[in-house]
């Protein structure tokens, strides 16, 4: 063949730049299931199953569209287990003139590819990934010379660039951001839509058997498995969201309810990140729903901000700051990740709910990740690299380019405030306001200190107290620090000793 076109497992779109630059008649596509990618962190079983099944379905589509494809299954004889090993074997087999691919999503993989040209003795052409609306180079140009790299400013520029929700030069509705309207707690008697569930076909069943056999000791439940694994089903899932959930998406974006794993969230991140859905298309559809009067502006703007704003922004930060970003630890947090992140066995109802549904679904919505599991880890001083590894492992949508800035920056403040203007911390009060978890928790949210008090309460003050040298000058923490300083010394000591007893339990690996 002329060129070997390597398609990675999260590049499952017929519009990939690599395919657009290839010649169907003369070039050959290569896709590989490799142990290295399945185990560089020991991914949730559902994530591996989703990706392998989506890859196998995508190959069928490519072949129908006329491409010749070499597809290497995980259990194929001779599978070397790595991208490089498989490319090497394919080069020996097919003798191509060169290799063509779209840039990978992770620094680790790109760093490996940089040596291929020399090692294989062939030209390796790496194209930019056109699925994103802002390239790493554009983001770097945007970032250059700025004192602060705030998402909000970036997002406004992206609105102007794409014209999404714009009336000429002005944002639709006269404001860029309707977040203030998006903080309502939900009620369990509201009608809750449920994401589209797809019954596993023969291809998926085969993959489920493979994963059960080869990855039995990985985290999470494999079944029931209901993810979409084709573009068609992923698009249907998104249409379901537009019809049933978008209307309430904004209003209840920060809400949490016991037993409600999805609320009004889209549950599409795994599809989007793997290439089954296209980001700009989703945003345009949501804008159309708003313009046709099918969704309020706070919902449409909120959704578009997540994708056009946050998703593009975190990717920009990732490529701007890697590789150093992965080992940032501005607050010098060193505690190991508590065992209950793996088991869900804790008396803290909010944490138990978030972890249990993560085990079951490889999914938790944003506010669970940020305000429950992320918040607890931050308050308890868990080593951010352990927190990062957990998030990368347990969610079906996790790839380092999106997970790392969300964890290191947004959730753990380990970059010292590059991404977030203040640490996302809260006491039990906020969780109680936004959820109904506390009602059935064995801790008492209104109790601040002593036996039976909600652990988030004392840990909150302990966090501020112990990190004062790092945080005292943060303007957004002025108020809590003022409250802390005004507090009676005996009260402060009660908080300190309650928090230390909790941290001690963690260190002794006792139940919490
Ligand atoms: P919805 O709430 O319906 O939002 C719609 C879409 O907006 C999402 O599908 C997603 O593509 C995008 N989006 C929303 N928030 C963010 C964000 N902060 N960053 C990037 N995109 C966003 N998202 C991932 O895709 N992969 C990850 O590995 C990941 N790790 C995270 C780790 C932590 C600690 C935190 C706090 C957040 C993380 N997120 C990650 C962001 C967010 O939680 C998920 O995108 C979201 O929960 C996915 O569910 P959904 O499709 O129902 O999203
Ligand atoms: C996540 C993942 C897994 C589990 N397995 C594979 C695989 O076998 N083959 C493949 O091409 N890609 C896989 N991936 C996705 C890659 O890890 C992803 O492409 C890189 O991390 C770059 O984002
Ligand atoms: Fe979580 Fe505290 Fe509420 Fe229990 S009381 S659910 S630990 S916030």
UniProtKB/TrEMBL annotation:
InterPro entries tied to this protein: Crypto/Photolyase_FAD-like_sf, PhrB-like, Rossmann-like_a/b/a_fold, UV-DNA_repair_photolyase
One Pfam family matching this protein: DPRP
Superkingdom as given in the UniProt entry: Bacteria
Classification via SUPFAM superfamilies: Cryptochrome/photolyase FAD-binding domain
Gene3D superfamilies registered for this protein in UniProt: 1.25.40.80, Deoxyribodipyrimidine photolyase-related (1.10.10.1710), DNA Cyclobutane Dipyrimidine Photolyase, subunit A, domain 3 (1.10.579.10), HUPs (3.40.50.620)
Transmembrane intervals: none
Record's signal peptide: none
Protein's name in the database: Cryptochrome/photolyase family protein
């Amino acid at each position: 063949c002329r060129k070997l076109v390597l398609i990675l497992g999260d590049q499952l779109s017929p519009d990939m730049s690599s395919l657009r630059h290839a010649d169907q008649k003369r070039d050959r596509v290569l896709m590989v299931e490799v142990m290295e990618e399945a185990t560089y962190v020991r991914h949730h079983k559902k994530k591996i199953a989703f990706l392998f099944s989506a890859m196998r379905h995508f190959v069928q589509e490519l072949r129908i569209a006329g491409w010749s494809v070499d597809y290497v299954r995980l259990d194929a004889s001779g599978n070397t287990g790595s991208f490089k090993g498989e490319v090497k074997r394919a080069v020996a087999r097919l003798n191509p003139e060169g290799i063509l691919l779209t840039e990978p999503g992770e620094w680790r993989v790109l760093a490996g590819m940089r040596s291929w040209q020399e090692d294989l003795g062939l030209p390796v052409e790496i194209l930019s990934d056109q699925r994103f609306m802002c390239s790493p180079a554009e983001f770097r140009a945007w970032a250059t010379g700025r004192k602060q790299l705030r998402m909000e400013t970036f997002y406004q520029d992206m609105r102007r660039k794409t014209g999404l929700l714009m009336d000429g030069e002005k944002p639709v509705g006269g404001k860029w951001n309707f977040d203030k309207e998006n903080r309502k707690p939900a009620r369990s008697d509201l009608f809750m839509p449920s994401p589209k569930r797809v019954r596993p076909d023969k291809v998926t069943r085969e993959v489920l058997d493979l994963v059960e056999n080869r990855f039995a000791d990985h985290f999470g439940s494999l079944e029931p498995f209901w993810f979409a694994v084709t573009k068609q089903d992923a698009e249907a899932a998104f249409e379901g969201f537009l019809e049933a959930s978008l209307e309430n998406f904004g209003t209840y974006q920060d809400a949490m309810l016991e037993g409600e794993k999805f609320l009004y969230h889209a549950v599409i991140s795994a599809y989007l990140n793997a290439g089954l859905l296209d980001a700009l298309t989703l945003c345009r559809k949501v804008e159309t729903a708003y313009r046709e009067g099918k969704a309020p502006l706070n919902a449409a703007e909120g959704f578009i901000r997540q994708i056009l704003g946050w998703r593009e922004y975190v990717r920009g930060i990732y490529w701007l700051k890697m590789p150093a970003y992965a080992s940032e630890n501005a607050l010098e947090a060193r505690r190991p990740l508590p065992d209950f992140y793996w088991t869900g066995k804790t008396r803290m109802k909010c944490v138990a709910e978030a972890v249990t549904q993560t085990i079951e679904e490889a999914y938790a919505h944003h506010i669970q990740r940020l305000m429950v599991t992320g918040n607890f880890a931050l308050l308890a001083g868990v080593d951010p690299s352990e927190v990062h590894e957990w998030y990368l492992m347990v969610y079906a949508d996790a790839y380092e380019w999106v997970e790392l800035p969300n964890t290191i920056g947004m959730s753990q403040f380990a970059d010292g405030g590059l991404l977030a203007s203040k640490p996302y911390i809260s006491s039990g009060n906020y969780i109680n306001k936004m959820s109904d978890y506390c009602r059935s928790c064995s801790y008492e949210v209104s109790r601040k200190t002593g036996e039976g008090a909600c652990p988030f309460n004392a840990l909150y003050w302990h966090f501020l107290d112990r990190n004062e040298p790092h945080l005292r000058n943060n303007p957004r923490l002025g108020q809590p620090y003022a409250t802390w300083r005004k507090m009676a010394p005996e009260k402060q000591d009660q908080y300190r000793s309650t928090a230390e007893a909790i941290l001690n339990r963690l260190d002794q690996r006792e139940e919490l």
